[in-house]
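Q: what sequence does this backbone want?
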């Protein structure tokens, strides 16, 4: 259902049947894993999370690793305040 490397790739799928007999596929809840960080990055004015992920992980789509390490749901929250130091976890995990 999700591409390899997606934060949802390893989440268990489930189905439910609605009142009209249609089968609806969905994934179960994704709990944010404990995500350690070894480095920090100071956010610059106008910087985006995909840019930061691209710089450190060579893959802008791995921005969600930064969200997990910093305990945020919305990526824009991490770069909203220039000068903030965000935690950088390992690329894999």
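A:
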């Amino acid at each position: 259902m999700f591409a390899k490397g997606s934060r949802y790739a390893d989440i268990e799928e489930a189905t439910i049947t609605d009142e009209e007999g249609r089968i609806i596929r969905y994934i179960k809840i994704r709990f944010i894993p404990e995500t350690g960080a070894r480095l920090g990055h100071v956010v610059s004015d106008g910087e985006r999370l995909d840019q930061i992920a691209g710089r450190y992980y060579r893959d802008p789509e791995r921005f969600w690793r930064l969200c997990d390490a910093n305990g945020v749901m919305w990526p824009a929250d991490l770069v909203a305040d220039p000068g903030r130091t965000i935690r950088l976890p390992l690329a894999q995990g």
